[in-house]
Amino acid sequence: MGQLTDLLGRVQGGDTEARDALFAAAYAELHGLAQGRLRHGGRNTLLDTTGLVHESYLRFARAGELRAEDRRAFFAYASQVMRSVILNSVRERVALKRGGNRQSSEASSPLLSDLPGDEQTVLDVHEALKDLEKADARVAQVAEMRYFGGYSEKEIAETLEITERTVQRDWEKARLILAAALR
Questions:
Q1: DSSP symbol at 111
Q2: Residue range 103-132: mean pLDDT, rounded
Q3: Which of 95-104, 123-132, 154-163 has the lowest mean pLDDT?
Q4: What whole-number distance in Å separates Cα of residue 147 and Cα of residue 175?
């Protein structure tokens, strides 16, 4: 736990070698996070678990700035990056099915209503989560970590520093709101 926090501090200070060491130290956990995500609904992306972790690392590296001051914030941020990678992968696949080099903004158009369930569901959940974030940011974060991050209730509770019971209530609330939004 302390090693990641120390490395995050060094990354914040501009140490590029610490960034590589951070990902090496966190690789197993990131791999588990990606595996959980792909197991729970991300199967229709063009990525496998290792590909998702590596693409997420490249996004971190390209961004140049890591916005996480501790272990908890790092894995919450990793969940957001994985969500972005999965969404882009789904949008690219949808664009290919719809004729190739279309803009990703077309991927959320009503023309895609006949897509197979998982791809359209990923896009729909993303849009519904954006709306939920406006209404209740913590509930949206719990849903994001659960759906796009593959976190367990215990992991979410530790990451957000709330009780598991609060996570359960927030997840139930998010599921009801998202189900209503997806109808």
A1: G
A2: 59
A3: 95-104
A4: 10
Q: Is-contact 16 129, C-beta < 8 A?
A: no
Domain that holds residue 86: 2-182
| Tens of pLDDT, residues 26-56 | 888 888 877 766 665 544 455 677 888 888 8
Q: What is the dihedral of CA 138, 143, 144, 150, to 10 degrees?
A: 130
Whether the model clears a pTM of 0.85, i.e. scores above it, the answer is no
Alpha carbon distance 47, 55 (integer Å): 9
Q: How many domains does the chain have?
A: 1
What pLDDT was estimated at residue 163? Answer: 96
**Neighbour tally for 136: CB within 10 Å:** 15
Q: Alpha-carbon distance 158 to 160, whole Å?
A: 6
Distances (CA, A) of 118 to 44, 121, 122: 6, 5, 6
Is-contact 144 87, C-beta < 8 A? no
